[in-house]
Amino acid sequence: MADLFLLFNHLLTEAQAAEARRELGVNKIIKPPAALSRIWADIPPEPESISDILEPVFSWIDNNISEGDFLLVQGDSGASYLVMQHISSSGIIPVYSTTMRQASENRLDDNTVNLTHTFRHVRFRTYGQ
Q: What is each CA distance from 106 to 101, 115, 118, 119, 120, in whole angstroms?
């Protein structure tokens, strides 16, 4: 049975975990170590290249994720792309979470706008489909 590994900037909701078990058929859901989560959550915008910054992430993938396992990849677009390249011939199945978004806008007295977004998980989708 496959496992689901997370490269994701948010906590997985109960709905997402339940769907992963039901629809993807995963056995375990595995978070990266805290140090890797911090790297993934804080990709700096200044460097021209981030490949070196992602080396610990690539190493974690190589040493922990097997062919047929799922990898939930969401975050910095460039970092996500590099992870996709890294796993492209590994047999690891990259997925992302689709959401229903609702926004509410509140105009404040000082002419600013307070915008609130609510996200509700809908399904996991495999990249490229």
A: 17, 6, 14, 18, 21
CA–chain centroid gap for 119, Å, is 15
Long-range contacts made by residues 83-90, C-beta under 8 angstroms, separation at least 24?
83/7, 83/54, 83/57, 83/58, 84/127, 86/58, 86/61, 87/61, 90/61, 90/65
Burial of residue 29, with CB atoms counted within 10 A of its CB: 0-12 exposed, 13-18 middle, 19 or more buried: middle
The tokens 């992302």 sit on which residue? Answer: 96
Distances (CA, A) of 127 to 38, 81, 84: 24, 11, 9
To which H or E segment does residue 59 belong? helix 51-64
Q: What are the tens digits of pLDDT across the range 22-80? A: 999 999 999 999 999 999 999 999 999 999 999 999 999 999 999 999 999 999 999 99
